[in-house]
Amino acid sequence: MLWCMVMNLYLLTEWVLGISLKGTGHKMFKSCFSLLCQGISPDELKDELPERQPRFIVYSYKYQHDDGRVSYPLCFIFSSPVGCKPEQQMMYAGSKNKLVQTAELTKVFEIRNTEDLTEEWLREKLGFFH
């Protein structure tokens, strides 16, 4: 099953750094998602993203290999659209590496224009790993 999580930095940072102001780390992690979707395509996902605010996205994608195999890579996408407030961009960018390291994510991509988030773009990025 395909799924996607779009994360808000403010609560997520507390979880990643191990600071829990509202309960256990697990509860904090669950509360940091601004959007949790199932069965959403990359094209549908871009319509859910704010045009002028950064977001972290964890996306499970059904990848059809050239030899017929199917895999479901877990992709981390940092959306930092042009026109975001510089303070927000710096806060998200400064937290990205710690989050990726803590969650042990290996397929990490960045996007500056939400309109570029398409199935073709994601397949091209994932093609590098296969």
UniProtKB/TrEMBL annotation:
Keyword field: Acetylation, Cytoplasm, Growth factor, Nucleus, Phosphoprotein, Signal
Subcellular location as annotated: Cytoplasm; Nucleus
GO cellular component terms given for this protein: cortical actin cytoskeleton; nucleus
One GO BP annotation of this record: actin filament debranching
Domain ADF-H intervals: 1-127
Keyword Nucleus: yes
Signal peptide: 1-18
Keyword Transcription in record: no
One annotated GO molecular function: growth factor activity
Any matching Pfam family: Cofilin_ADF
Protein function: This protein causes differentiation of brain cells, stimulation of neural regeneration, and inhibition of proliferation of tumor cells.
Family indicated by similarity: Belongs to the actin-binding proteins ADF family. GMF subfamily.
Protein name, UniProt field: Glia maturation factor beta
Biological source species: Phyllostomus discolor
